[in-house]
Design a protein that fits this description.
8 helices, alpha+beta, globular
Length: 270
């Protein structure tokens, strides 16, 4: 019943938003039609404002409250789902904690002005073993900008520990327009002339360009070219990946299997 209520709230919120948008767009037409029917210009004598403004404010207030309530309930369901997944896998679940190696990665790899999943708070953290390796799954939340331009991002981060590896300290992430502009001045993106698709698709940078170039064999480059864009961070025995959204439990398991494949490629080279 609890989850059904959440679905009902979602339907009400969606319907309310559509209805509000409808009246916002066709409000004047509706008032004009009612005025013709009753033979009174509601807009001219202020009656329309007396009716519309209070109901508009009430409607907006209800939608905002409902939106926050729905988000709260959905967050609760997510915690429950992840706790169930951790229980099934025999993993531990911590509502909120600090993952020190992420901060170390960010210190070495990222610009100080750049907020990202590595700098965010870690919540709904699951830790355990899969295929005889330590793994961690975490919801990373971080914000950029301030005031009206402030935006909050939520991403699922997955990490694996490879004790036998010595991975280069590097970051690979999907290339955007601003990366192309900044790279023209700073030249931080490591490109491969013989792999234009990879170089166009991703930004690759790290502490030792020579070591990174020798690490990226054709099989690794080909693997990245064939996958939907995602972010990879590595260094020493740690390998971390994340996308641009939170993952559902079944998506997390699929991503862990994907991570195992990527780790296998990295281990062949490390």
């Amino acid at each position: 019943m609890d989850r059904k209520l959440t679905k009902i709230l979602g339907i009400i919120l969606a319907a309310g938003t559509i209805l509000f948008g409808f009246f916002e767009y066709f409000g004047n037409f509706i008032i004009s039609a009612i005025s013709r029917i009753i033979g009174k210009d509601l807009a001219a004598d202020g009656t329309a404002n007396f009716i519309v403004i209070p109901f508009t404010c009430l409607g907006v207030g209800v939608l905002v409250i409902l939106s926050f309530w729905l988000q709260f309930r959905q967050a609760g369901h997510r915690i429950e789902n992840l706790q169930n997944l951790a229980r099934q896998m025999g993993w531990s679940f911590i509502r909120s904690t600090t993952l020190p190696f992420l901060k170390e990665f960010n210190e070495y790899l990222n610009d100080t002005w750049s907020a990202n999943a590595l700098t965010g708070s870690s919540s709904n953290v699951m830790t355990g073993r899969m295929n005889d390796r330590n793994v961690v799954v975490s919801d990373q939340v971080y914000s950029t900008g301030s005031g009206k331009s402030r935006r909050t991002y939520k991403q699922t981060l997955i990490g694996i520990e490879l004790p036998e590896a010595q991975l280069p300290l590097m970051c690979i992430y999907p290339e955007g327009f601003m990366d192309k502009v900044l790279d023209g001045f700073m030249r931080y993106d490591i490109d491969f002339e013989n792999r234009p698709l990879f170089s166009k698709k991703y930004v690759l940078y790290g502490r030792n360009e020579t070591a990174i170039r020798s690490f990226f064999t054709d099989p690794i480059l080909s693997f990245y070219e064939q996958q939907p864009p995602f972010t990879t961070v590595s260094g020493g025995k740690y390998l971390v990946i994340y996308g641009d959204s939170l993952l559902a439990p079944h998506e997390i398991m699929a991503r862990l299997n994907f991570m195992t494949t990527l780790a296998g490629l990295f281990l062949k080279k490390s």
